[in-house]
Specification:
13% of the residues lie in helices and 47% in strands. By secondary structure, it is mostly beta strands. It has 2 domains: 119 residues, no CATH class; 110 residues, no CATH class. Strands 1, 2, 3, 4, 5, 6 and 7 form a 7-stranded antiparallel beta sheet that branches. Strands 8-9-10-16-17 form a 5-stranded antiparallel beta sheet, with no helix packed on it. The N terminus is likely disordered.
């Protein structure tokens, strides 16, 4: 996805998500592409790092697939040569990324990557990892809710809409918590992200969880959704970020 927070990406996790992505179908609401524009190595303090500059492009549609929005970000991926884990920093502009590189790295030897499939690739949505898993628990924590999908955790700091059949349940309505807990044990069949609706998790039995990602300007919320996957995968959806502004 777009650069909405610092994240660590394990090669094994990316391959696993890509396998599910191809096996179970692509999400139609958002497509994410990354193009590596330069690679090299340089020093951060006394440590040597492998470094890649990446242009990230996310194309969102609305739920009816009538309109599109494109969000472009500029990432830097870096890791120590002996580490399997890439760290990532995401920036809204190329100038911000350049300033970060100048501040933290020195003696970088850049090479332009070959125009291969690896240099330009489509990536699965991070939540593709929960497709095929079932909702194992729902925990209400004061003013937010935690969902667990067999070790994949979602903290929702905005209350989701629960749709079961033709009935939609919202927070503060009678039966809302029962409707949310009724999803326990159901398998996730799809994940989508639409710029007019937000995150949509589809369960077996014609059930949906819709998580709004657009909040009012005066909202005090900074974080809307937090995902913590297996082996350190971590993404945060922040308030007032594209395409939800």
């Amino acid at each position: 996805m777009r650069g909405i927070g610092d994240r660590q990406v394990q090669a094994s996790l990316a391959s696993y998500a890509l396998f599910r992505y191809s096996l179970l179908g692509r999400n139609s609401g958002m497509r994410h592409y990354e193009t590596t524009t330069a690679s090299g190595s340089g020093m951060w303090g006394s440590q040597l790092y492998e470094v890649s500059l990446v242009k990230a492009t996310s194309i969102y549609s609305d739920e009816k697939d009538k309109n599109k929005k494109t969000v472009t970000g500029y990432d830097i991926h870096f890791k120590q040569p002996s580490s399997p884990t890439w760290d990532n920093r995401a920036f809204k502009t190329e100038q911000e990324r350049t300033a970060f590189v100048k501040q933290h790295f020195s003696s970088i030897n850049w090479t332009e990557p070959p125009q291969t499939q690896e240099a330009h690739k489509e990536l699965p949505h991070i939540l593709t990892a929960i497709i095929g898993e079932y909702l194992s628990s729902v925990t209400f924590v004061m003013d937010y809710v935690q969902l667990d999908f067999n070790g994949h955790g979602l903290n929702l700091y905005v209350w989701p809409v629960v749709v079961i059949g033709d009935r939609a349940s919202r927070q503060q309505e009678i039966g809302y918590r029962d409707a949310l807990c009724a999803l326990i044990g159901k398998n996730v069949e799809r994940v989508d992200e639409y710029f007019d609706v937000g995150l949509v998790v589809g369960f077996q039995g014609n059930s949906l969880l819709k998580v709004p990602l657009r909040v009012e300007e005066e909202s005090a919320l900074d974080e809307l959704v937090e995902y913590r996957g297996l082996e350190g995968a971590w993404v945060i959806w922040q308030a007032h970020e594209e395409p939800y502004t």
